[in-house]
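Chapter review: from sequence to fold.
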Amino acid sequence: MASSTWLKSFWGISVDDDELQHISQPISEYGVHVTLRYVQAGSVLGVGILGPLMALCEPGVNVISVARMAGKCGKTAALFGFVLGPVVTMFNVRNMNMEQITETCYHYRYHQPQLIVDRMSVAGLGIGSLIGKLAGGNIGYFGAIGIVGGLIVGEYLSLSENDNQLKI
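The token string follows.
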């Protein structure tokens, strides 16, 4: 599993440069990174494109049916991304040496705008799942919608982070 340094860096907890440079489990860390990307992509694809298109093909379409189908497709596509991520990681790692994997992980740890997007998508998953649980609905549907909401918020926040980095 990814190291505690990676987790601290991911959640924005202060970590010194010496700790960030030490990557104890580069393949695991790379796998988490790739899998998170595939889950995010699946959620966006399911919630934003496939779900609404499938709902529009059904008779008696309304806002509720579109939202329900978006959540259902988002959950399914996110789960598909969760399974596909490790498979893609395995194929990518075969074509990389350990230095390349470590270098990729190192750059990812320092890429603050992407870390903001990732934090917000994971937070969105948690908040969406909690809302789904409290509302008595399917936590997977709400979780997938939460991931997409978190991605949108994260992109907005990372744009302001990029602006701050440019001014320095």
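Two observations follow directly from the output. Residues 25-167 form one domain. The mean pLDDT is 87.
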